[in-house]
Design a protein that fits this description.
With about 220 residues, the protein is an alpha+beta fold. It contains five helices and 13 strands. A six-stranded mixed β-sheet has the order 10-11-12-9-3-13, covered by helices on one side. A five-stranded antiparallel β-sheet has the order 5-6-7-4-8, with helices on one face. The protein has a two-stranded antiparallel sheet with strand order 1-2.
């Protein structure tokens, strides 16, 4: 785990107002805890910034074959999401394009990034610096229903959809983290503060609030 911050969450200024416990994860300051009693918020609905999770975009005609040499199978279907052995995930977003998302403590993205410099042909790195949020808890589906035409029940397991949330284009998918079913939102970082504030307004109606990432990644 690096001790130097190279990236900044698009939600950093909002999180800073909540007096968080900061931890550096994958080169970004991340809010690990926002209060002593935050786990109870997950009994209703909680909002968590996961923008620190490293994301690697790859495209080019050599992507599928090269990833196979790295013991990673590219999902066959468009927008299909698959878990990797270390908890990271991969999704196909084009014929020759994928996104890989890491988790705290996983080495997949670091290993692939290093290998790209020496071993890859016809594979190109695409910068992915989106904002990333999680809605977790039983009322997450109700919150999504107030902001988006796609309902949680319509979200296929192991797949993402591109839609609009609170008027913002976003990738939406379901993911289980620390035993909680989460609705994940990934979108342009320039809308990060707007989305954070809009979602907090809605989840406050359910008695929910913001939590640090340790609620969803307790062992990181």
């Amino acid at each position: 785990m690096s001790t130097t911050t190279f990236r900044t969450s698009p939600l950093h200024s909002e999180l800073e107002q909540l007096s968080p416990s900061w931890t550096t994860v994958s080169g970004m300051q991340a809010a690990s805890c926002l209060g002593d009693n935050e786990m109870h918020l997950l009994e209703t609905v909680a909002l968590c910034d996961l923008s620190f999770l490293p994301r690697l975009g790859l495209n080019g005609p050599g992507v599928t074959g090269w990833l196979q040499t790295q013991d990673i199978e590219v999902p066959a279907a468009m927008y299909e999401l698959a878990a990797l052995s270390d908890g990271s995930s991969i999704v196909r977003i084009g014929t020759n394009e994928v996104i890989i998302e890491g988790v705290p403590g996983a080495g997949t993205i670091d290993n692939l990034t290093a290998a790209l410099e020496t071993e890859a042909k016809n594979v190109f790195n695409v910068t992915r610096n989106e904002a990333s949020l999680a809605l977790a808890g039983p009322a997450a589906a109700d919150v999504l229903a107030q902001t988006c035409s796609v309902l949680v029940r319509d979200l296929l397991q192991q797949a993402l959809v591109y839609t609009r949330v609170a008027g913002v284009s976003a990738a939406v998918f379901q993911q289980e983290l620390n035993g909680f079913n989460c609705v994940r939102l990934v979108f342009d970082p320039s809308y990060g503060i707007y989305m954070w504030r809009e979602l907090l307004k809605i989840i406050a109606e359910y008695g929910g609030g913001a939590v640090g990432y340790a609620c969803l990644f307790p062992e990181s």
